Amino acid sequence: MVEYRRFRNSDPPQIRRLWREAGLGRGAATDLDADSLETVVFAQPYFDREGMILAVDGEQAVGFVHAGFRATADEQSLSQDEGTIHAVIVAPSHRRQGIGRELVRLAEEYLRTRNAKTLYAGAAAPRDAFYFGIYGGSQPAGFLESDPLAAPFLAGIGYVPHQRRFVYQRSLEEKGDPVGLRLMSVRRATKLGACPTTAPPTWWSTTRMGRLDSLTLSLMPKTGGAALAEVMVIGLDHYMASWRQRAIGLLDLHVPEAHRRKGYAQALLVEVCRRVKTDLITLVESHVEEGNEAGINTLKSAGFQQIDTGVVYRRQT
N or C terminus: fewer CB in 10 A for the chain? Predict the structure, then answer.
């Protein structure tokens, strides 16, 4: 008989097993060691054992759901106005028995008792408290379409698509960079450099990403002056076993308003790819929100191709 209970300190090995066996698709880092889930889930200061609920059959865990909250606008504390189902997994041997539905119901109950007014399914900024670096690729992007069971399951329990993010990748094993007269001109006049930190990181950014290797790179004029474009680079070391190659993610690509539409974003991406290739990186990933045509065009111009889509769902009231 299947029973439901809150997380216990002895559960991580079983949760890791369920994660590995679930068939979550290309966007999940599945061959995780004991420290991986600890780093991105259990060690988070806002991890609440009440928000992780397990389905157990005897002594065996056969499923789990994990719910959590986002940060306040200033990213200095937790806000409980919005709740998110970050993960829901049922062992293949116990599917189609209503276990997933019951897990989500219990997770929703947990969120509502803590005053969540709006419920989402699928972690993505700014509602991405957990699983940064092991699901979604370069960053959480909701439930991926390559995760085959997510969409029909969520539709069946009353969740509808709310937001989409497109996943783009560029293989550095393929020879040749994009070419063009404007790109050549920009590259001759600029150089790649590390961008100094101008503001202290927020509590939220530190907890979510502070345990991942990261660096902000910028495109600088060779004659000196302020950055023309910048992007954050994060290591995707948890994916090495799953993807069988070394990969990085690119986040928060930014070009100051005065420098937009001049090819600086494209040049920055090309130069970053050239730089990391010398460190034996063979794959680069970046995400862009649906409707951001400028971002989509920039990634395509730098040799990236769309390989997946992430969807954040919202609970129908």
Answer: N
Dist CA 149 CA 160 (whole Å): 15
CATH superfamily, region 2-164: Gcn5-related N-acetyltransferase (GNAT) (3.40.630.30)
- Residues 295, 288: Cα–Cα separation, whole Å: 6
| 117, 80 contact by CB (below 8 A) | no
Confirm if 286 and 276 have CB atoms less than 8 A apart: no
Per-chain mean pLDDT for the chain: 94
Q: Are 265 and 229 in contact (CB under 8 A)?
A: yes
Going by pLDDT thresholds of 50, 70 and 90, the confidence category of residue 259 is: very high
Contacts 24+ apart (CB under 8 A), 96-102: 97/2, 99/2, 99/55, 99/62, 99/63, 100/63, 100/65, 100/153, 101/156, 101/157, 102/4, 102/55
- Give the H/E segment covering residue 268: helix 264-277
Residue 191 has pLDDT above 90, yes or no: yes
Three-state secondary structure call for residue 99:
helix
Could you confirm whether domain 169-313 is CATH 3.40.630.30? yes
pLDDT per position as a tens digit, 95-152: 999 999 999 999 999 999 999 999 999 999 999 999 999 999 999 999 999 999 999 9
List the domain boundaries for the chain: 2-164, 169-313
Residues in the chain: 317
Residue pointed to by tokens 């698509």: 161
Dig out the tokens for 117 from the structure: 């007014």
Query: How many CB atoms neighbour CB 76 within 10 A?
Result: 10
Query: Can you tell me the mean pLDDT for 52-77?
Result: 96
pTM over 0.85: yes
Q: What gap in Å lies between CA 182 and CA 271, rounded to an integer?
A: 14
